[in-house]
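Repro:
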Amino acid sequence: MQLLSLAIAPGIAICLFIFHRDAYNREPKLNLIVSFLLGILAVYPAALIERFLVSYSNNSISGVFITAFLFVALVEELMKFLALRFYAYPRKSFDEPLDGIVYAVMVSMGFATLENILYVWQSDQSGQGYQVAFMRMFLAVPAHATFGVLMGYHAGKAKFAQHHKTGLLLLGLFWATLFHGLYDFFLFLRESPDVKYFIADGLLLAGALASFIIGIRLSFIHLKKHRKLSQQTYNPMETMSLRKAYVHDIPLIRDLAFRIWPTAYGQIISQGQIDYMLDLMYSEQSLEKQMQEGNEFILAYDGVEPVGFASVGLTEPGVYKLHKLYVLPSQQGRGTGRFLIENVIKAAKAKGAHALQLNVNRQNPAIEFYKRMGFSIINDVEIDIGNGYQMVDHVMEKRFEQV
């Protein structure tokens, strides 16, 4: 019973690890269990095909290569691929790229767990059950997990790609087979008389370990990428941060403004007015002057990427004005604007303010956003900004209790 537990434990542990990495939009447990069971079932056709094909192999270097890459790696990864492609991939719950990794690892761990039980049971007949169980716990089972991550990463990309879906799916199968084949190739070479007297077992084992370590490294990189996408989609605030901007940040503020304004105002004012206002308000001289006059600029980051900015200043005792609030189009609807405003309000309250005001173009859809944030229209203004242009705005205000 203890030996059986050792054989089962690594696969279950890796399943739990992947389940907890999928923290923002977890898959239905039933789907994960079915994927695991399909991985178990995949062992049987793989074993039958391998047994048939291996009968045609030999211990030459080319024979070992064919056995490792085609007769074992390709067969096993293809069986796992079929379970992923025809069960998990079409499901509605497969709704983000990270799900490809989650389901592929579940299938792989089902496969690896039964395979592990069989190897450990067979080794126990010769008194080596515990040695094999511990060795496979740290090598073979995690190796199957890395192959699953490599396959699932590309399946996740394929699910949401506009083009070349089949190519991406097959690319995942290719990378899983390649690393599986490399791992097995070095281990199988130890049995080849063509190399046994020239290369020590330790060097061959090192080759297998090297391919395993590279696979592990790639797996964590792929997992991190897709987990970040999941986090940004389902819990974006966890990656958001703010910092105060200084004079040396003026080029960054200008870059953001010139990327945001055409989308923000393209349907509201003319391109001529956009160009004029950008030059008027976002020239280096103008931004530096605004900072010198006491307007504080704040930059918003999603991870390490700057995605928006705000500007706020005191207009009268107890009243601050939000002069600017802009986020990249890619951030809209993700809570970035709300994150900026909430932190501006928090800072204003700490300074004893009782209200925050802002101007917004009367045609700007953002009016509804500000209303949801608790702002109300208190006045209408028309401001001549020169060159025949006007700003036709609502003045909106949010009042709050002082800290």
